[in-house]
Amino acid sequence: MQPRPQSHSAALGPGCTGPSLANPTPLAFDHQRQVAQAPSCGAEAFAVDPAALANGQPRKHTTYPYVTGTSVLGITYKDGVLLASDTLGAYGSTKRYKSFDRLRKVNESCIVGAGGELSDFQYIMRLLEELSDDDFCMDDGHTLKPAEVHSYLCRVLYNRRNKMDPLWNSLVVGGFHAGKPFLGTVGMQGTNYTDAHVATGFGNHLARPLMREHHRPDMSEEEATALLHQCLKVCYYRDKNSINKFTIAKVSAEGVTISEPFALETEWRYKLFENPAANAAGAW
Amino acid sequence: MAGASQQGGFAFDLCKRNEFFEAKGVKHPGFTKTGTTIAGIIFKASARLGIAAESHPAFASPPSLRLCTPAFIIHWHAMQWNFAIQLPSLTHACPSPCCYHQDGVVLGADTRSTAGTTVADKNCEKIHYIAPNIYCCGAGTAADTENVTGMVASQLELHRYATGTQSRVVTAMTLLKGHLFKYQGHVSAALVLGGVDFRGPHLFTVYPHGSTDSLPYCTMGSGSLNAMAVFESGYKDDLTREEAMDLVARAIRSGIMNDLGSGSNVDLCIITKDGVEYLRNHEYLQAKTYERQFPQKFASGSVPVVRERIYDIKKVVTVVEGEPMDMEA
User: Quick check: pTM over 0.95?
Assistant: First the structure.
């Protein structure tokens, strides 16, 4: 039998991680799952266990991220939504994990991309998978809509922030439902909005201006892909924590496709880059 | 150079005093920075044998235009030198490749200067004069950029009198970086220095701590990432003057639209061997949609008269006519 997942802080009780469906609830925190769609993992009310506090155990919070992902870009086009990111999990300045999928599928109409602490992203995916599993088990033909996923993630992130123990992520939620594309973003404080094009992290400064210049709501998939390639290239040029290995995820009426990793053509040999100190001794 | 300290090296006289104040709880004044987008690009359109020049409105007047011959080029350049500033911008007139060897630098800047979160000056000039062939865009603390560029401009002018030659861009760069390094980054001036001298066009960035880069395209300021995104997707080898101007204007516009510290209008400065074109407010983006007339002009008859009172001043004032007073004594 699987061990019961523990909260990483005894004083906080099961409010952070709780028992999943497969594991029995302890009698002390007897919790009836009233709402079928609510995940059991993380579903219990925030309760501070006085016994644990009395023990003198310290309360642990996330203070800074360790393994991080950089920017995630998202744009809507005529028939759906495209998300793009690189596949790097950086450990500080080291390029530690070069094949990390930062774009994941939630269900046939929704994808999520994340930057920031990647272990928190994996926890978020676990929450979303539990919700999707509940939908599957319910078997009534309904799945989570992209707007619902977005709203759910807002609440989770905001509540964690209120506990002073944030999930250190910048998320992008993209989906296609009822013939309309959906694109939204959630920050680690719970800040959220929806827009025709979004970017997290460095992408806000580098990619957003290009998107504002070139994006139209009726773009074709080729134009949208070309725009994303341009933005990814600029992000790769000017963001230190990035690699030339990207994935693009597409959601449309046909469902979700996450591409194989690919690299982009980069130009490093402009004529004027060669010998910059030709007329400036000491410059470089 | 004028201005070097007597003893040389760093002067730390006031540091102990400042530390004493800080220990007593006196808060040091902060720097009011100006958010900015400044950018520069080198263009080097190579000489082309052009038949397109004939249809070219700017070249419509004689000398007659056929294939470029050396004699023609020299003649045309001589013409342009005299009208370097007054010549209308060649942007509108030159869509096709130009018929002469044209190297130069295009510098661009926005025009917003901020004090904290307030916009202090909606239309300031961030492209500073250093020499007739060298201009410098400044980001960071406005006082620092103005004074540092002014100081180096004076030093270069004296140098020109002493040597009798055109100033070199590397000289300006060396003076700037020496000064900024001496102050260890406390003189908060981030500069984009560009110019054309006898060696060709040069473009440098100078950072507040004194390091420099020599680059074909560069941006500085709070909007630098936004402008650099445009450069990275638009730069290619051998830009023509018009392409360079368009790219720099787009980059500055990107900074203005996407960065809160930059705003208002776009200034451009094009420096070539033959002269400088300073396009102040090249793009005027802060035009108001509605301008109220001041003073208000009301058409007569548009306002109903409620009451009319006429005062006859002659009844209360005595007019005495006589000799004007003698003011000269």
Answer: no
